[in-house]
Amino acid sequence: MQVSKNIYNHKCKIFFYIGLVCYSSLLVISATLYKERIIQPDNSAYLFEILNSSDFVIAQVRRIAIFPQIPSVIATKIGMSLRNVGILFSAGYTLYYFLIYMLLGTVLKKYKFALVLLLLNILIVSHTFYWFVSELPLGIAALILLVAIYENRRFKDIAFYEHPILLVSMFLIITSHPLTVFAFAFTMLYSLRMEMLKKDIVAYLSVISIILYIAFRIYYENDYETNRINALQNIFVLFPNYINIESNIVLVRDFINYTFAIAIWVMFVCYYLKAKKYFDLLWINVFLLSYLFIINVSFYDVVISYYFENMYGVITLALSFIFVFELLPKIKQSTLQIFIFVAMCTVCFIRIFNYKDFYNLRIHWLRNYIEKQEYRNVALPDIIAPKDTLLASWAVPYDAILLSSLERGETYSIVFISELDSLPMPKPIYEGKILTGLRDIPYNKIAKRYFNFEESPYHVQYNLYE
């Protein structure tokens, strides 16, 4: 048995090198397709704030976001061009995962954990390649690293200086996203079952996470986080109409993107049945199906693919652990094992390039609209925004600001405002500031080295074109 484990560990080292090629390719693609990635909802807002403040953008106290933003923040502080900052912002998030992957494989020699991280970044990734600023996968990646560090260690072996570091690490993970709690719960249970972590370590980490989570919820509360948690009420509101909801339609629509994940799910069910691991089969499937139910019902009216793909990352984590630690070792042919990993990487790249045109539609629409627009500051009713193309109309001001500054050297501000939906007369006057949809910024608070605004009142129009 030990010989078999050693052979598999050696194979994982080979798979690790395949992952190096995959991550290197993802890094190059992230830099090459930087415009397709930064001119997207949330991404553009984050980058705009970094450019304007030369500082980190921390949303909802999710401080783990600091790490992937380090390259772009440094770039602004040393005065690099907007284009270069945009490239570093896009590549910085991929680099974050790449560096953790390298740390797992080259420093810790924990190749299996490195492969779990690799699968987290390729198994279902397609839309989330272009919508990449979510803190959920950042927290999950840090969680994988934490478990790898404390694998097979006991509480008594933890050095005194490690405790404050561990406390800070757990704080970053637990506060990275509300759904990280589910990822943490599964990882602890699975690590305990697979004897990756000792019982005292699991107990220690669990106690710390519970204390931190409760303290965080008591001392920090905001409408955004509260609304996300309150979405659980939809489980009771929709009862028993759980089938014909929009979130399930999105799941079916994107079904092909989850092919490998579904295949792993079927494989592990068959394997557990054959091995008579009935209890494990029960609790893991209850966890996965319950999580899927909670997500789809809680956010039943959301129709944006990247939003669900991101939240399904917890399911991806679970399936990745099972595949790497249990299923892959059962495949005896080395060539078949290598083929599976190469196929997963290749299909991931195919999905990424397949959606390139879809996410380019926003850029093409904005570029064409800016070219045809007589005014540089335009305010329009939100109701006329072509949401099928723009996905999120609130993000258009940031998208337009970045795209026009990059391509024209002149900054255009285009904003869709809900208060204009009722066609108020006389037209409201917006002047002396930039409207972003989230907050208004006076012209004297704008970083002029990156943005060349025309300091004129907004032209209010009730049609897209006049």
Protein traits:
466 residues; mainly alpha; three-stranded parallel beta sheet; two-stranded antiparallel ribbon
Topology:
Blueprint: H1 2-32, H2 34-38, H3 43-53, H4 66-77, H5 82-107, H6 111-122, H7 135-149, H8 162-174, H9 180-193, H10 199-219, H11 223-230, H12 234-237, H13 246-253, H14 259-274, H15 278-298, H16 305-311, H17 313-327, H18 334-354, H19 356-372, E1 377-381, H20 387-390, H21 396-407, E2 413-417, E3 433-435, E4 440-442, E5 459-460
Parallel strand pairs: 1-2, 1-5
Antiparallel strand pairs: 3-4
Helix pairs in contact: 1-5, 1-6, 1-18, 4-5, 5-6, 5-7, 6-7, 6-17, 7-8, 7-9, 8-10, 9-17, 14-17, 19-21
